[in-house]
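Aim 2, interim progress. The first record below pairs a target sequence with its structure tokens.
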Amino acid sequence: MYHFTIQHSLFSLILLFPQLLDLGKSLEHIMSMNLRLILEHDKNCNRWSAFFPELPGCTSAGDSEEEAIANAKEALSLWFEPSESNFSPDSKIVEVALG
């Protein structure tokens, strides 16, 4: 198991882990949060899979353990990027920042 420090969208982190604010954690603590990366070797295809259990859909793979970790870091950064979505015409999109 590997741990990675994430320094991406604070808003995404708070949406994912609202209990951090309830516990009185500082912004520095939230931004230096560690996430678990699970690596599994598939002997049938001789490849490594990697996934962050706390982030649904944030997965990757590689031919080696090192490549799987590098690819997982890229997947992590992409996971926090906003995606295009089709909302109803009545929806209002608001960006929120702390501080």
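The second target in this work package is listed in the same format:
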Amino acid sequence: MRPDDFERARPHLTAMGEVAGGELDALAAVADRNPPVLRSHDETGRRVDEVVRHPASQPMERIAFERFGWRRCRIARACSAGPAGCPTS
């Protein structure tokens, strides 16, 4: 990363690091103990193919998507640069 890009990103990276080491770490520990489960059929036997995730996953996504501007993106490499690098942002 070029030095001027790093300086521009520094406050964002610092904030992300603080959240990652605290709030996000606690949520991730709970989510890791309760991995997603595939629910293939509902109570009536109808095929639903649904992934059921622990409630801790929702605040983790909210932190990433709302607080830090990340978006769900199929182009992982471009999105690894954050919102500025993601063509779908």
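The chain has one domain: 3-85. This observation will shape the mutagenesis plan for the next reporting period.
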